[in-house]
Design a protein that fits this description.
The first copy, chain A, is of the alpha/beta class. Chain A is 35% helix and 18% strand. At the A-B interface, helix 2, helix 3, strand 3, helix 4 and strand 8 of A face helix 2, helix 3, strand 3, helix 4 and strand 8 of B.
């Protein structure tokens, strides 16, 4: 089976991009990735599109074909397909492209993730994002992703004696890193006090515990080992790719705060890469709510159960032992659903190439990325590194 | 690379199943496929879900996880993912499962396609199915899939001197075959006169030229060669799998009636299988509108341009030289979007196993299936046969 490399990456600014359309954003990110890879559009042999909500928001399904068409590659009649795994669509699309190349059927794949969320507003958006939950057994009774994350947080905080401050520090760290990322949705730093005292959303979660849903696109070019060698390209190797699933509804799971999908996916990925957590230089994780930042540090293997609180002051910072979300994470770089997981890998690639500027992680050798669906119903983990 | 086999298939009845839910339908089809394969649910290593419109119809995205959960396999934490390629989602999901097995990462995959369309009504449904078009450049201006198919039909009929009767015969053939399929949506035969004189929908297409959108589910179990041999199973081999894409909007394409995605996908599949059209025993094609039945016979290579009309009286019947849609096709077996393409392959498997009862194609050795997205923006072609 061929090894798979990332040879190019690009993204748009994340944020409230009122004047730009879904297709415009996707094309911008795609062209940046193609340029960054040093290839031509006609070299692309397959397109994997990642999108979560365009069907619901604007009545546009079939986004794989839409992106291929507006990227100007429809004339080559290459296959294009959309991958949807709710908020893990981005990671899942990268994984499907990886499998496609590994199968030997393709040498060069584009992955394009995009979301355009500012086409709708307020309570309507709240209902639509509940489409990632179990519509009949969770959302129907009024549960929203934020409310379910809050339930997980309450039980976790009680069982392991975790203070609200630990959650807030996850967001403080994200904002600190995003302040150095020109593509981030929010580039302002926040203080611990600001994070603690923001408007409540679903107690104990406040506004500063919730990711910034918005617009944006991210794209990657993946290639087979033979293509990389033949064209003398410098790629970043995908050392492992794994995914796992859990019960859709939070109430069906082992505990109210367990994220078994993250645990299983990370364990599988580390096994495949023949690595330990201590081999990971930094991690881009899916902190759609700050509580998940803590839970994932534990489920991904960086801390024991209940102990993530000990990492959030120093260790997760850019200069700590396990830098978390150098990009700014979902809280501050932003969370345009279908683009988010692809954007995590854009950041990993940029860091591993040593091109992350002010927010560069020192001696970044190996990255782990974790893209999670909804409240944890699925997870996709990638480990990247080396030339 | 491992060869890939289909080792089990199952489906629900297609139709207006008012009292049954999306998840119930999916689970029924899945269990039938598992039983048919002679495996246990815990043997499944990955689930590929195919669904087109649940997000828009009932606010339920994340259907990959939903199906895995309600199929009772969430406890194994296997990956689950949804594939969406509009009305070709079914064929596309089978192809992604095929690539996953070929990559060496899985030995056993389930593909489950499902759609629940009777949760909405009339004009609302009409708008929602336009989500497979270009929402901003086609649907926004009032175009619907039926209207666009009618435009293709008019131009084609004029350019190649094709009479309405040829279109109607495609539907007559579908109904004749469906009359022998217990799972078909419509089991009544129709006469040519009935087909010609039905209520107009978008002239020259009438009600009998339009597929039966409804509810239903279909499932397949795919396995690697080594798994099949180790467990002494009798599978049907996937001889080739290919997909291709075209411009999303009809007005962007070469001609108003060209289906380049079908042409390219079929050519690629035949090349991979090292076969000619004359090697194909029967074809399940995507006649969401009767005009596509004619166009696809040509694009898939069974007739020259403008000549499909010569095949529709005898040749496409069960006893003809190239039987078309022994299942009853999209017109009469039915078209529950996400299930349709999976169901085509359920039929191909059933026929190749010689288990199709009254509608059995004699000496069925090699099948071609063609799953098409929207008005032709993408196509997935599979060639199946042998043990």
């Amino acid at each position: 089976m061929s090894d798979v490399y990332i040879i190019g990456a690009g993204e748009t600014k994340f944020g409230e991009l009122w004047e730009r359309s879904l297709r415009e954003l996707a094309v911008e990110a795609g062209l940046r990735a193609v340029e960054n890879a040093g290839i031509f559009s006609k070299d692309i042999q397959v397109l994997y599109g990642s999108n979560s909500l365009a069907g619901i928001i604007s009545g546009q399904e079939n986004t794989g074909d839409l992106l291929a068409d507006f990227a100007g590659i429809a004339e080559y009649h290459i296959p294009a397909i959309r991958i949807e795994a709710s908020t893990a669509s981005g990671g899942a699309a990268v994984r499907q492209a990886y499998l496609g190349i590994k199968s030997g059927e393709f040498d060069v794949a584009m992955v394009g993730g995009v979301e355009k969320m500012t086409d709708i507003f307020g309570s309507e958006l709240l209902d639509l994002t509940s489409s990632v939950l179990d519509r009949e057994w969770e959302a129907f009774f009024g549960a929203t992703p934020a409310a379910l994350a809050a339930i997980s947080a309450r039980k976790y905080m009680k069982d392991f004696n975790v203070e609200k401050e630990a959650l807030s520090m996850v967001s403080v760290n994200d904002h600190a890193n995003a302040s150095m990322n020109p593509n981030a949705h929010y580039r302002n730093r926040i203080t611990l006090e600001q994070a603690m005292k923001a408007t409540d959303i679903a107690e104990p979660l406040n506004l500063m515990d919730c990711s910034a849903m918005g617009d944006g696109a991210a794209a990657l070019i993946l290639a087979s080992e033979s293509y990389v060698k033949k064209n003398k390209l410098n790629g970043v190797k995908i050392l492992a790719s794994a995914d796992a699933q859990d019960y859709l509804a939070v109430h069906s799971r082992k505990h109210l705060y367990s994220l078994d999908s993250a645990k299983v996916a990370a364990r599988k990925a580390l096994e495949k890469a023949k690595m330990k957590n201590s081999d990971i230089s930094f991690v881009e994780l899916h902190d759609s709510y700050s509580i998940y930042g803590l839970l994932e540090l534990e489920e991904l293997g960086f801390a024991e159960r209940g102990k993530a609180k000990n990492l959030v002051y120093e260790e997760i910072s850019l200069k700590g032992s396990i830098p978390v979300n150098p990009s700014g994470g979902l809280k501050a770089k932003g969370n345009p659903l279908g683009a988010t997981g692809v954007g995590q890998i854009v950041e990993a690639y940029t860091q591993l190439k040593g091109k992350a500027g002010e927010r560069q992680v020192k001696e970044a050798k190996v990255a782990m990325t974790h893209s999670m669906g909804g409240t944890g119903s699925n997870s996709v983990v990638h480990i990247l590194g080396g030339e």
